[in-house]
Design goal:
This protein is an alpha/beta fold and 321 residues long. Helices cover 39% and strands 17% of the residues.
């Protein structure tokens, strides 16, 4: 039985990943600074602690010989958290400390294979200024120019892990996630991302009311359902390719279009009220040529399928007694 350590297992993607690894026959230790607020962890062993602290990282790694480490822990959130500039220092410090600690523990304890979750936020702002984005290729990352300190830290950590691969022989795999969404993720409180925020607003809106959209709503993104993200992670880990590789959809949609899709699920008559707010880049799309070339697979779910699942879950959450 393989043993896996999942850092960030109390979060959205990490929680789903722990469940998927258990289903695949792994023994799983999950680690996070908190438990998932929506459901109990599927990990065999769940440790609560601060991965910024070297002593805690040592404790979780040294009593078991792990075959694989999945490093998803980070200080992150949606546009309302990342793009205001108010959290830049803590985002950079917290995530960098976690990655420095976990890279070193992988070296010290002989973890042979390591997955790191990077982000589409590493891509240069200058090539994301138009809504009709033709797709971001992995090779577009340099010359570097992310639009947020979150993106800069992710780019640093990619280089950190690949340095450990070159110097210490750790088998590193890196994926750049493009807006992963689905049930059991944050949908309120300021750190939620666009799909969850829109689902919440629609679920809570009265009939013939309105929902707020930041900016003109014509900014575009691609969004990937969690099940497809997990499939991409596991296929990458089973391959001989290190990455970085995009794990994202290439189905481009505007934020207005996403909102109208969710309003359609609700059956309500709602209008869009455009207000000022943090926006990020104008257009972002995943180019999936490399993942198909290297893994023989690329995401295929239509966006509407995942969004309907997510809306139903968030609707039920907002209407709990």
């Amino acid at each position: 039985m393989k043993k896996a350590l999942v850092c960030g297992a109390g979060g959205f993607i990490g929680g789903h990943l722990a469940k998927r690894l258990k289903e695949a026959g792994y023994w799983v230790r999950g680690v996070d600074i908190k438990e998932n607020e929506y459901r109990k962890s599927f990990a065999d062993d769940f440790r609560i602690g601060d991965l910024r602290e070297p002593q805690f990282c040592q404790e979780i790694c040294q009593d078991i010989r792990f075959d694989e480490l999945y490093q998803l822990a980070a200080d992150m959130g949606g546009a309302g958290y990342i793009f205001t500039g108010e959290h830049d220092a803590v985002v950079m410090h917290n995530s960098a400390m976690i990655n420095l600690n976990m890279a070193e523990q992988a070296r010290l304890t002989g973890i042979g294979k390591l997955f790191y979750s990077s982000s589409a936020c590493i891509y240069p702002e200058r090539i994301q200024m138009e809504v009709n984005n033709s797709g971001l290729k992995e090779s577009d990352a340099y010359p570097a120019g992310p639009d947020s300190e979150y993106g800069w830290e992710k780019l640093f950590s990619e280089r950190l892990y690949f340095s450990y691969m070159r110097n210490y022989g750790i088998d590193v795999k890196i994926a750049r996630f493009h807006n992963i969404f689905g049930p059991y993720g944050t949908w309120r409180g300021g750190k939620e991302k666009a799909p969850a925020a829109i689902c919440r607003k629609v679920a809570e809106a009265p009939e013939n009311g309105s929902i707020e959209i930041w900016g003109d709503g014509e900014q575009t993104r691609t969004f990937l359902y969690i099940d497809e993200c997990l499939e991409g992670i596991l296929r990458l880990m089973q391959s001989d390719f290190s990455g970085p590789v995009n794990i994202g959809s290439d189905e481009l949609i505007s934020i207005n279009g996403l909102a109208r899709m969710v309003i359609g699920f609700s059956g309500k008559t709602l209008t869009l009220n455009h207000i000022a707010g943090p926006l990020g880049v104008r257009g972002r799309c995943s180019d999936n040529s490399l993942i198909y070339n290297k893994l023989g697979w690329r995401p295929a779910w239509p966006l509407v399928r995942g969004m309907k699942e997510t809306y139903n879950w968030i609707y039920n959450e907002t209407h709990r007694p």
